[in-house]
User: Which sequence fits this backbone?
């Protein structure tokens, strides 16, 4: 089972990036999905998650209105569209999953991150 995040990079404040996470050996449509991030010296944070049941979506306050999470089941891929990026968004971003049957109430920040993540740097 492998999830590989991609799409990170260096971007100026106000810019946009789209992160992608594709899976080999795991069907994302069976899971709650999410994106976590961790900045140097800070704790891991749940950025955005969407539950399989009802499609309930969570965004941490600092990204509301700027980030959009989505999934493409046909491509077995999840995305995080990030607009109006700010220096405070600088972090390594990880795609993450949660088993909705075993853990129906798990908080976004506690989803299981997989893969090495992708680094996002917002700087002028």
Assistant:
């Amino acid at each position: 089972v492998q999830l590989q995040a991609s799409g990170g990079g260096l971007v100026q404040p106000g810019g946009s990036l789209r992160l992608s996470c594709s899976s080999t050996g795991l069907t994302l449509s069976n899971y709650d999905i999410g994106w976590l991030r961790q900045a140097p010296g800070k704790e891991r944070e749940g950025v955005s998650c969407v539950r399989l049941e009802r499609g309930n979506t969570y965004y941490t306050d600092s990204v509301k209105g700027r980030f959009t999470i989505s999934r493409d089941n046909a491509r077995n891929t999840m995305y995080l569209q990030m607009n109006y990026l700010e220096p405070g968004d600088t972090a390594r971003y990880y795609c993450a999953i949660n088993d909705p049957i075993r853990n129906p109430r798990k908080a976004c920040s506690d989803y299981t991150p997989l893969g090495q993540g992708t680094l996002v740097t917002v700087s002028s």
Summary: The radius of gyration is 13 Å.
